[in-house]
Prior knowledge:
Elements lengths: L2 H10 L4 E5 L8 E5 L12 E6 L2 E9 L6 H10 L5 H14 L6 H13 L4 H14 L14 H4 L4 H31 L5 H10 L8 E6 L8 E7 L2 E7 L7 H15 L11 E2 L5 E5 L4 E2 H7 L4 H20 L2 E2 L8 E5 L5 E6 L6 E2 L10 H11 L11 H11 L7 H9 L11
Helix pairs in contact: 3-4, 3-5, 11-13, 11-14, 13-14
Amino acid sequence: MTVNEVVKILEENKAFYVILDDPKLDPIEVLVFLDTVPETLQSESNRFGFTDGDRKRIIVLQTFKEAGLTEWYRKKKNNGSDLSSEDIAFLWLNAAYCLSNRVSWLRGNIISVYMKRFNMDEKGVEDLFVDYTLKNNVKIGRANNTVYPRGIGKRITFWGKARIKLSKKMSLLRMRTYFRLKFFRIGKDKKHSCEAFTDRLIRENVISAGSHDSKGRSLNSNSGGNIYIFNEGEKKSFIKGNEPGPVKAIKNEIAVQKRIIESGEDKDPFVLMERYADDHSWVKYPFVPYETLDDHLKKHRLDRDSIRLLGEFLCKILDVLYRTDIVHNDLRDTNIMVVTDQSGRVEKFLLIDFGAASIDGKSPWEQDTYEGRYLIRNVCGDYRYNEFISDDAASAMLIYSEAGGETDDEAARNLRSKIGRVYFSYIVN
């Protein structure tokens, strides 16, 4: 669907809408604020992709209610006044400050554009947003339960800020209580015990009876799944399973692994599964007897050759994920394994854990439920997860920089060129 087709539908439905279109703010090519979404435009996450040359673009439909701008919209509609440049700047900055709950590439790009446009520093742009909010008496009552930057939150509509914080705290408290009880019952339920799970794997010929020594770690992951390491002679296997009902991380992991295995792409940068259960209750991998990049960096500094290997690895996995329409969503140093030789020299890197990945733009969890929102935020973490956009290349650039990579070497330039190329929008109602 193209922008013109979206506009035509909006006009046919006599919808009040505001279109923000600025190529400099790529990857969001077109952001449409509107009263309500017409049925003919209601699709998953109100997101429409289209192709512009060799790049994927996206149209995002965002209601004023979702953006916390219901009163602002009503005033504009009732006054019948055209939007000024200040109004447009306010809407873009609202997207940056209100819909982006972490330091994201999109947020930084919006701020950077307006710093140049108005010849201001970042504080000046923040003042512009705050001054507009106060001058026009804009009460931002709800912004997807997303917390504003602290400095801004103190300066605008404190009652709204307090309500947002309270709503978020209560929502998280409900979900934490729910999942803790769920996980507690799994730990206590004999059907979900480590022993019962081991017996099942033996019955299904996943591991051999009498020759294994199982070691299970209950609730080791944020999604609540259990991780098991099985020793069978000199061979070790790594099995994830036994997760609670609402969690679909293993089902998602299997789907992504299938996509990579069947794609014909280079499989060397990934730890790929050996077997899986048809009912998505477990997935089995070869055990990787190495440490994560996070653990490795706590004990060692990467030398120049290792940093070069890391840069090549990150660029390669981004290309494979892009060509297979997969977004990892949880790309960080704890999900990268460092393979070393006997002398401790880094030989290669491997990517693991696709439980939070998106396939063809579809998230593993329902976006419009409390459970889904809690799981996404909890698994990916507030630092990486952004309700508006997820960009593996931006995360890869951060990993490379934190590992000691130069900011302007060949790998860094390659990674920066990929930022914004792969993206999917998460609009949470």
